[in-house]
Fold this sequence. Notes:
heterodimer, A: alpha+beta, Heat Shock Protein 90, 2 domains, two-stranded antiparallel sheet, 11 helices, 62% helix, B: alpha/beta, Rossmann fold, 5-stranded parallel sheet, 5-stranded antiparallel sheet, 8 helices, 15 strands
Amino acid sequence: xxxxxxxxxxxxxxxxxxxxxxxxxxxxxxxxxxxxxxxxxxxxxxxxxxxxxxxxxxxxxxxxxxxxxxxxxxxxxxxxxxxxxxxxxxxxxxxxxxxxxxxxxxxxxxxxxxxxxxxxxxxxxxxxxxxxxxxxxxxxxxxxxxxxxxxxxxxxxxxxxxxxxxxxxxxxxxxxxxxxxxxxxxxxxxxxxxxxxxxxxxxxxxxxxxxxxxxxxxxxxxxxxxxxxxxxxxxxxxxxxxxxxxxxxxxxxxxxxxxxxxxxxxxxxxxxxxxxxxxxxxxxxxxxxxxxxxxxxxxxxxxxxxxxxxxxxxxxxxxxxxxxxxxxxxxxxxxxxxxxxxxxxxxxxxxxxxxxx
Amino acid sequence: xxxxxxxxxxxxxxxxxxxxxxxxxxxxxxxxxxxxxxxxxxxxxxxxxxxxxxxxxxxxxxxxxxxxxxxxxxxxxxxxxxxxxxxxxxxxxxxxxxxxxxxxxxxxxxxxxxxxxxxxxxxxxxxxxxxxxxxxxxxxxxxxxxxxxxxxxxxxxxxxxxxxxxxxxxxxxxxxxxxxxxxxxxxxxxxxxxxxxxxxxxxxxxxxxxxxxxxxxxxxxxxxxxxxxxxxxxxxxxxxxxx
Lengths: 357, 243
């Protein structure tokens, strides 16, 4: 298997799949329809003409798909311009071969039909030339279409990745320095606890910095959130209480990384730290009708307003969930009485690597 | 001379660390610990520390506000701010040449700061409070036994007198040194200036009256005596608050 990077960077879809073959059939049929409609006088009635043109073009189309499927590994190592030129040349050769075969077959005594004389004149070259030009124009248009779609998709993905990075870089400096201070204090009084805090902080940053795997299992994401909780617990002591009610969630569900931890961070920063007595953050999760719902609630003081950092993290989570699950993902957030409630809902997709991942 | 030090931080490990660092510094005596601004003020009045190590970000009353109130004490302590990360505050400290320490605090820096600790001046305090986004939650008044903290919500009005300003509140009256103009600027729309010498809490406005001489007065909830209102303000108050 080749590196997924070059696979993603190559703009032609994989023609070895049945989905791509279906696409080719649709393109072929549309071209056949245009050609038949454009013909002045149908040689043998519209439907017969259409089916013959279709038959001819399907040969070219499907053989072309097969050819591109076969040469794909070599094509994708070429630069875009050279690769496209190679594809055009291959298709041109294919058209010449199929056309010649069709011409020979049509002229041969095997097929004795009055209409055939109109379709296949005594001179072969005009027939071949016409097919060649039409074929190249359609292929060039299709290539352009694939290229533009590919660039567009890649652009979206790049933007999303950039946003993930921005979020990762956004770990609050406030949190980092306060944790360092806590560790400095524990080093004197409780060295074992200090050691654990350093390990937790390292794990948390590793989870934040890893960009190889943008998705992980819910169990892994919960573990990151709990590591974060342990660090904050040292600092805030009895003021911080987190209630986890997520036992009914499938541990193997696939989620984008940094889904829970930023929500918890917001809840603590805005909901717990400003209260002298602290408070309780509640995380509830349930699975119903194939949808996972996670709700994070924290108390809010009367004077507090929505903060910039909070909105940023929410917008980011919303984007990543939408990128992963499309329209089925939902992120809601708002203040209800004395609570701030964030609700996430997305479909349950089982991680292929299971709980072992 | 030994320093009498008060440690203020809402996080227990942070307080512990300061205490432990201070135990290694010659001439530093910790006289108290507090976990929030209100508690800090109580202890500052009670134990008369000469240096306060004050965390900037705390729940309830933050460090900048607490420092401001401490300045009202008869002998205000020197204040050294501590902060983990707070760009705005750090900029303000630098601009005002005020002592501050970044967490985790180094012992040498702590010792140096103690050696140089100096009282905040009134202009410094005023400039610093500009860095603290929410306005004061309390008004601090000097009292026989230290400080009295008056929640802003309980203030009926401020009345300017010759040298001082009188605060009339739920539990009585106190004298403060803030000028009416500064209070008006700070408190914004929750208070309204009804007269040259009076700033009144909007939430306690009751009604406007006019006596036989044509002089206007405003009555406030829970206050027996009405306050004089200027002619110009009487009309405006009627219109704005429908009283």
